Amino acid sequence: MSLVLDSAAQDLLFREARTANTFTDEPVTDEQVQAIYDLVKYGPTAYNQSPLRIVLVRSAEARERLVNCMSEGNRAKTAAAPLVAILVADNEFHEELPHLFPHFPQAKELIFSERPVREASAQVNASLQAAYFIMGIRAAGLAAGPMNGMDYAAVQKEFLDDDHVPLMVVNIGRPGPDAWHSRSPRLRYDEIVTTV
Amino acid sequence: MSLVLDSAAQDLLFREARTANTFTDEPVTDEQVQAIYDLVKYGPTAYNQSPLRIVLVRSAEARERLVNCMSEGNRAKTAAAPLVAILVADNEFHEELPHLFPHFPQAKELIFSERPVREASAQVNASLQAAYFIMGIRAAGLAAGPMNGMDYAAVQKEFLDDDHVPLMVVNIGRPGPDAWHSRSPRLRYDEIVTTV
User: Fold this and answer.
1) Mutate to test the interface with A, among B14, B31, B90 (most CBs of A within 10 A)
2) Where would I find the Nitroreductase domain in this sequence (chains A, B) (predicted)?
3) What is the ipTM of this complex?
4) What topology is assigned to B26-176 in CATH?
5) For the residues B170-188, what does the mean pLDDT come to?
6) How far apart are CA B62 and CA B58, in angstroms?
7) Which of A98, A171, B83, B143 could form a disulfide with B20 if both were Cys (CB 3.0 to 4.6 A apart)?
C-alpha cells in the first residue's frame, strides 16, 4: 500500500463517505462549521486567492426562499437538512490579494485587473475550495449532500449581488434512513491516465 | 474540538501540507499514482460525471515540450520535479454517463446534450477532482506543486485534442531544500461566512 494516510481517515474522507440524500434532526452548529473552515482554509488556491464564500441558510424564511430556487428533485432534502450552505465564488477576490499573497502583492493589478480573468480563476479556485469544504464536512463526522440542480440566476438574485456567483448548494448533517443510492461505478485508472 | 478526523491526518492533508517549489530526486512511481487515484476517485461529482483526466509527463522529450509551455517562473521546477501531471477536463464526459450514473442514465441526453453546458460542468467538476487529487498526493506522503502559470492553448495543442482542456499542471515529489515560502495568511471565518 502506497499511502501514508491511515486507513480510518481514508474511509472517513473517501471510501465510506457518501453523498447523503436524507438526514437526522441533529443540528449542525456554527462551531462545527467554524472548525471545518479552520481546517480546510489551508487548502491551496492559485495565488492563495481564496475566492470561496459561504452563505449559511439558517432562518425558516431564507430556507423557504432557497427551496423555491431548487430543482423539483432537490426540494424535499433542501427543506429537511439540518443545515444548508450556499457555496459562492467571489469575482472581486483580487481586492484581498495584497493581504493574501504578500510574496507578490502586484498580482492584484498585473494578473487580475480584468473581470473575465477573475471570473474564470474564481470559478476554478472556489471549486477547489468547495472540494476541500466537502472533505472538511466529512472530517467533522458529518455527511455532505452537494447539489447543482437549481435556478442559479434565482439563487444569485435572492441571496447574492453581481460580484458573487453560486457554485453549488450543500446539505449538511448526519445521514438519516436510506440516505444514499448504491455506490455508482468509477472510471478505472487506465481509463483516465495516459503517460507521455 | 468538533472534528472526528485524527489530528495527524489533519496535519498531513491540510495544516502541515504545503505547496512545494523544490523536490528531491526520489522517483514517484505509477503504483503511487494508482494508489492515489484509487482513493480519490470516490470523491463526489455532479451526476458522478468524473470528468478529470490525467496526463503523466514521464519522457524527457515530453517534459521539455511542457516546460516550454510554462511561464518563466514555473519552468525550473517543472523541469526538476520527479513527476509532472497535467490535470485535464474532458468536455465529452457525457459519453460515460450511462455507465457512471445508472440511477438516471438519461442524463447524457436530457442534461448534457449541449457542449457549452458540458464545458461549464466539466470545468467545475474536474476542479473538484483536482482538489481531491491534491489531497491524495498528500495522503501518499508526497508534496504537490499545482501551477496555473502556463500558455493553456499551447499545452492543449501539444498534449491534448479539442475535447480536452488543461486545468492545471501539478509537480509531484518529496519536498527538497527551501521547498516553500512562509505560510500566507488565510481569510477569517467571519470574513467569508454570512448567515441568513
Assistant:
1) B14
2) 17-174
3) 0.97
4) NADH Oxidase (3.40.109)
5) 95
6) 7
7) B143
